[in-house]
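hey so u asked for the seq, here:
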Amino acid sequence: MNKIPKHIFHGVLASLLLLLFLCPATALAGKAYIWRDKDGKIHFSSQKPHPTRTGGDIKEREFKEPPAPKKDEEATLPKSPIEHAVLCTFRLKNKKGGASGFFINDKGMAITAKHVVKGVTYSMKAELPGHKRKYRVRVVKKSRKHDLALLQIVIDKPTPFLEIRDPKTLVPGEDLWAVGNPLLAFKETVTKGIFSRIFPEKDIKKELKMKRTRFKYRGDWVQFSAPVTFGNSGGPVFDKEGKLVGVVSWGVMVHEALNFAVPSSYILEDFKSHLE
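ran it, structure tokens below
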């Protein structure tokens, strides 16, 4: 039998090397040997052939496993709807302070409270769970009536996000959770409480016995009892399925269980054109 010409041998060798790179990472570790026997047949093996079997021209290649992905790039799969909500929530910080925010779609669009971004500069950064780097934040739009602001987090990968539930479907006594960064020091803090009621806008002055409210925001409010404080503003309030019902806005200082969130339905009302 005639021996295979060298140019054909090298062509087959190149093809085999290409196949190596298409194999799983575990197959790339160690050495590989490409050789032909005395009859001219080409062989591929992970063990070096005995000299008596070859016709010479043994090609030896050493392959290394690809580097492990960086921690920031690893896909984190949540174990529960609560953990999913935590992964959707981030800390907002700049020189003037900050608070919390959360993703509302997979393109980096996010929500926070309007009072959180009042007077902020472009120096505001978002600190995402599990990420070492900080991401630039752009304020897209502020609501005219409600304590809401739409943000764009400058990130080049899909983002986890919260689905919206109509808060009018909540039942008094239903469990609710809040995630945020109280005092900006205790990031990814989860607290649990219950839904009390939808607090009507018309009742605020009457029930609080105030001639004027200390803020100019309009609309009804989701009253809930999960403990929140400074730094929680702009964070999500959600149900047991991880669906968003409100955005943390304000609370009564003398009673930690009297807290209020902007109804999630107002997000679609104010920013629908930007989220479609």
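The domain at 167-264 is CATH 2.40.10.10 (Thrombin, subunit H). The first strand starts at residue 30 and ends at 36.
lmk if thats what u needed
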